[in-house]
Amino acid sequence: MHVYELNHETQEELEKIQNNLLLEVKNLSLTIERFGKGWTRERLYVIRDFHLKIHHGEVVAIVGASGSGKSLLADAILGIHPKNSIVDGMIKYENELLTEKRRKRLRGNDILLIPQMTNALDPLMKVGKQVKTLMKQNNHQKAVKQIFQKVGLDPDVYDQIPSACSGGMIRKIFIAMALASEAKLIIADEPTNGLDYESIDEMLFQIKMLEKDNKGVIMITHDLEAAMKVADKIAVFYAGETVEVVDKKHLKKGGKFRHPYSRALWNALPQNGFIAIDSTQPSATEKLTGCSFAKQCPKATKKCKIEKPLLKEISHDEMVRCFYAGM
Amino acid sequence: MKNQYLSIDFDSTNYKRRILWKIIGLVCLFLLVALSGFWIGEEQIEANMGEKHLSPSLDHPFGTDWLGRDMFFRTLLGLHLSWKVGLFAAVISTVIALTLSLLSSINKFFDSLVTMLIDLFLSIPHLVALILIAFVLGGGVKGIVIGIAFTHWPSLTRVLRAEILQIKSSEYVHISKKLGKSRMWIIRHHYLPQLAPQLFVGFILLFPHAILHESAITFLGFGLSPEQPAIGIILSEAMKYLTMGMWWLVVFPGLSLFGMVVIFDALGNNLRKLLNPN
Amino acid sequence: MTKWLGAFMLECKNIGFYYNRSNWLFRNIHLSIERGEIIGIYGKSGSGKTTLAKIMANYLSPTEGEVLVDGEKSNHSEVYPVQLIWQHPEQAINPKWKLSKIFEEAKELDQDIPSILGIKEEWLNRRAHELSGGELQRFCIARAFHPDTRYIIADEITSMFDAITQAQIWHALIRLVKERNIGVLAISHHISLLERISDRIIDFNQLKGASEKSF
After folding, report:
1. B174-199 per-position pLDDT tens digit
2. Would you tell me which CATH number, out of the four given (3.40.50.410, 3.40.50.300, 3.40.50.970, 3.30.590.10), belongs to the domain C2-213?
3. pLDDT digit string (tens) for C56-84?
4. Chain C residues within 8 A (CB-CB) of chain A?
């Protein structure tokens, strides 16, 4: 068995990291109940076991396949999940349990969602005004225009209504809103979807800008490449579970992803190998007994099919869910 | 350390089930009233001079009128007739609405033609157009049914037209066209399945309108003839006796009519909720 | 042989398009795709790639110029020999349909197409909202392989999906296309993807730019 070298952090350092913790999610699950055929009920295990830690001034990317329930993650954290679903698990915000009441208060103030859809703005209100309403201090048009310039928007956009803006501009407006607000945690749902190469780079640069503002950014994406460019940590999400959290430093030093699914994802990138493993994710209706990736995994053994691997901690916030990780 | 924060019951499934029960209940109630007309024979509403002007009692829950006829059975028969008129009128109206909305999907010319017709009919008050049509056709059941059918299609047509317009511009319709599918194929496989719920709900919601209008113009004397046991006739006849203190002649038939309309409205709204949850 | 090659091509001849008279989106576009060839085209969003795709698949008429399929203008009422696959499969499938109906729509589909694309039997009984985008896109691709299809335009067909799904879809698509000698125009902003899949890559801006000089 491969043994990991644990990072030896002093008590003091650990405390510092702990204090800096912005959001911690443990054992989060989301189950939807809906009607199947006829009047039978069917349960969808959309999120099965999700874990995440994010600190101030940090970008964490949640990377997962399309249809893995990623977009419901943000909803579950914010408490805006569909009515016919149950969310279970523990969420702590700034080391304090996030209760329903507290969440309502924080949502939109401390925690801001950058939605995937570009129709989320008030269609009748001037764009600049919508940004301005989020500012607590410095409530001037000038300040808003400065932020517009920062994100690469023409200050004249201030007086436009959303329908006059292109999709790319609207995304910049969302970033401007995040910068203008006092939010500490930004959740961006697929911020690079549908953008061309240059715009993706621009968007990633702006996400970095949020980070420099000491905000925590959770970026939910299917694009591993973009995630690797911008994130400090990458959480890989498969079949409703966190299968791996890896620090970018580890990858930079030449380290590889530890989980076989993440490796397969990496190898499938056109610039790496363009290798398509023969797989489809287990569907959300399946109750899984063993490892969710066992059927597709080249290294799977009998054990993997019977026993569900737990998320093992490798260092303070690197984790992997595999019996044979790193081998 | 777990905290289960959110409501445990899966709201929407129970919600759906609740709506379904409501619908079943409403349908039963409605069938009871509507079909009762088939069982009621002449003898139940025969004139009986010995029992004139009776106020409501166990024998005659709705009382009797100036000819000693049982008002309960008269009212049921009236509702039955209203239901038949409503059914015919709603079917014809729905067919008109569907035909015109499909016509409007052909091209811009037909679309503006249909839109013009809708605007034209919506600009005339229902009751006025209805009275005119019924009058021209000589009144009676035929006059009323056609009158109602020809005045009630525009709003449903407008809804269907908007729906078709949206479906027509969707990518999957474009793709079907490029795969060589005919207009009829697209209507059958793309338009109709998506219009079905709207059509059905629209049809149900036409009933209360049809019934109220039928009673209204009958009451005004342009509709059904006095020997027919319609609610409108009952009400207009009863007006003469109201001053004599025979309140039951108006109150019970009126309430029953109102009840029937409410049932239909509730039925339509619940069906809509079930078919399109948003 | 050379005569044959000349005839079996999807050709854009001098294509120009505008929505607004004073503002041409592009002009004088010349482009040809041979049967069995995969051409990659990349460019900025908003530059008119999708519009060109729609023109080539006969969804839009060009303002000027013409599109020739194997040397002739194609008929409108039949199955169009150039099929377009869209970016968002969930918009390209009727939400009320069971997915098996997609195959009904593209009748006479070759038996092996669904399995090559990795379409599973149990998906056929479901409706669009019960499947993921990647799964739906496989149906859209299958449908495009109508027996009469000679060319396929793939407009950002995998840009919404993760790398594994992307690789799976393209491997299957390339196999189908090569077996059937179908020409493909692949539009993407992802250059390394195009390098993997295409026989030839064109920069759309250059294609536009080249023509601008000749105005």
Report:
1. 999 999 888 999 999 999 988 988 88
2. 3.40.50.300
3. 998 888 998 889 888 888 766 688 999 99
4. 42-46, 87, 118, 120, 131-135, 156, 159-168, 170-171, 189-193, 195-197
The pLDDT assigned to B7 comes to 37
Total domains in chain A come to: 1
Q: Which domain CATH number covers B120? A: 1.10.3720.10
Hey, is A203 helix, strand or coil? Answer: helix
Neighboring chains of B (3 or more beta-carbon pairs < 8 A): A, C
The pair of structure tokens assigned to A13 is 């350092």
CA distance A250 to A269: 19
Q: Chain C: list its partners (3+ Cβ pairs within 8 Å).
A: A, B
Average pLDDT on B193-217 reads 85
Task: Check whether A24 has a pLDDT greater than 80.
Answer: yes
Nearest to C132 by CA among C142, C123, C141: C123
Look at B176 and C80 and tell me if their CB atoms are within 8 Å. Answer: no
The number of domains in chain B is 1
Query: What interface predicted TM-score (ipTM) does this complex get?
Result: 0.87
pLDDT of residue C26: 87
CB-CB: which of A63, A68, A197 is closest to C189?
A197
Residues C84, B170: C-beta atoms closer than 8 Å: no
Nearest to B144 by CA among B202, B82, B198: B82
Q: Are B231 and B217 in contact (CB under 8 A)?
A: no
CA B189 to chain centre: 28
Which amino acid is present at B52?
A: K
Supply the pLDDT for residue C215.
Answer: 40
Of B3, B10, B12, the CB nearest to A90: B3
Task: Examine residue A176 and state whether it is found in any structural domain, yes or no.
Answer: no
Yes or no, beta carbons of A79 and B6 under 8 Å apart: yes
Ordered alpha helix ranges (H), chain C: 2-7, 49-56, 100-105, 113-116, 133-144, 163-180, 191-197, 204-213
Burial of residue B239 (CB within 10 Å: 0-12, 13-18, 19+) is exposed
